[in-house]
Amino acid sequence: MTPLRNFIGGTWTESADPVRLDVVNPATEEVVARIPAGSPLDVNKAVTAATVAQPEWHAYPVAERVHLVDAWADGIAEHAAELAELECQEMGKPAAAGRFFVAGGVAALKASLADAATYSFETSTMHDGGGTTRIIRNPLGVAAVITPWNFPVAAVLSAVGALLVAGNTIVVKPSEKSPLSTARLFELLTLPPGVANLVLGDGRAGEPLTEHPGVGLIHFTGSVPVGRAIGAKAGHGLRRALLELGGKDPVIVDTGVDPVVTAQAVAHGTFVNTGQICTSMERIYVHRDIATPFIDALVTAAETYTLGDGDDEAKMLGPLVDARRRDVVHAHVTDAVARGAKVHTGGVLPGGKGFYYPPTVLTDVDDTMLVMTEETFGPVAPVRIVDSFEDGLRLAGRSRFGLAATIYTDNPAHAKAAETLPAGIIWINQWQGGGPDRVFEPAGDSGVGAVGGHAAYDAATRPSAIHREPGLVT
Ligand code: NAD
To answer: Among residues 343, 335, 389, which one has the least CA distance to residue 364?
Structure first.
């Protein structure tokens, strides 16, 4: 099996280090590819290529940069089915879902390109005495883009638009678990050599990239512990870091809603992508008045999900990404059960090949159990019954995470009150809506730095103020 290579300065390049990592299909447990483990030498080469290419890239007019990135986006859209198949092989996502999310990633990239048309890269103000102040938004230079495995294509595409259009060059380091689809993105690249570079590997590539003095901005999407370590290093190096991290998102189900329809929506929010979404619903607070029909319907919905290799279009849920992830998910369920939780469906490790885990519904949980405090990142729905909406709101807000929160209610005052939840995104009577260009910043441990819309351009640039008086120079 030929190992994948890095893409540096427009050329596919062997890693300087002989160590290789296996990429394993989580449905079959077979090795589907090998990649370099990563090394500081590879990183240095990529950052150097990006540094060399950056001034020329910045010299292009903004509209030309938009045009070139847009051509890349079009090519990616044309290959959505192939990219979805690669995602399916490397991390188990059913191909049908993969196509949907690749399209979502392209839409996010295109939305970011459209935002450039209304972004002020330069503003100018005239003073009373005839002097002017111009504010110029300059790129930061080379941006490191480090991504996780759960949405390999979309994670890259939603990060790079503003970075590139603002005149930065990039070095992308995808997860070692899901490098195939990202490598394919680079085969489809339409940008000048050195503008976008790819370095493969695990932390052995990620760490030197975040420490490299030639990197002006780190855009990291991943777990809280790695994000925290990167944030500390960025602070030490006095460099900007955007950290998009994990969550433990609550959902509040209020008394006046249809319990069956809402349970189906909550099942989707909990189980889709086998629960491996940073904004998966991971804590469910349901009003006592409708708890019984809601839980019954949630169990029914959970049992309709078919598990299997995502190559099979009939399967709704693929496996978890690896054995380690499945161990964590099962440990959370086991901890809850040991402390009094009741399993309504699921909760049992299946035999056979593949890192599958069944959709699981738990009740009698409390907010001290791992399944209610730590990110589970699996298809587990822990339901806590609350006596009032206010109790649900209070418990929902009591978490160290703050990525997103969802509320289902027919009460306008309750919908309004939910806006106070400490979360970057609040969904009311829906989940995942709002358009790809929404602006938000996670709260608490879920990250630092606003993303989306013009905020992405603010993050990708550094303003310089140029004050000029007339008279001395003509
Ligand atoms: P992870 O933190 O283990 O890895 C993320 C990336 O960091 C990978 O590319 C990995 O190789 C790299 N990495 C590992 N160690 C590193 C180091 N020391 N220095 C630099 N880079 C290093 O996360 P994961 O398991 O790949 O992804 C799952 C996590 O990502 C979950 O917590 C999920 O909630 C989060 N996530 C967040 C968002 C968001 O937008 N907030 C989106 C998707 C996933």
So the answer is: 343
pLDDT in tens, 296-314: 999 999 999 999 998 888 8
Q: Which residues are part of the catalytic machinery?
A: 244, 278
Sketch out the chain's domains with CATH numbers. Answer: 2-245+446-466 (3.40.605.10), 249-428 (3.40.309.10)
230 in ligand 1 pocket by Cβ < 6 Å?
A: yes
User: Alpha carbon of 364 to those of 113, 382, 393, 424: distances in Å?
Assistant: 47, 8, 18, 28
β-pairing, 380-386 vs 401-402, is: unpaired
Task: Indicate if ligand 1 lies below 6 Å from the C-beta of 147.
Answer: yes
Distance in angstroms (rounded) separating the CA atoms of residues 401 and 247: 5
Q: What are phi and psi of 22, to 5 degrees?
A: -85, 140
DSSP reduced 3-state for 222: coil
pTM: 0.97
Q: For 376-415, what is each residue's pLDDT tens digit? A: 999 999 999 999 999 999 999 999 999 999 999 999 999 9
CA of 18 to the centre of ligand 1 (A): 24
Contact, 4 vs 200, CB < 8 A? Answer: yes
Closest CA to 177 of 206, 197, 143, 157: 206
Q: For 370-456, list the strands marked E by DSSP.
A: 380-386, 401-402, 404-408, 425-428, 443-444, 447-448
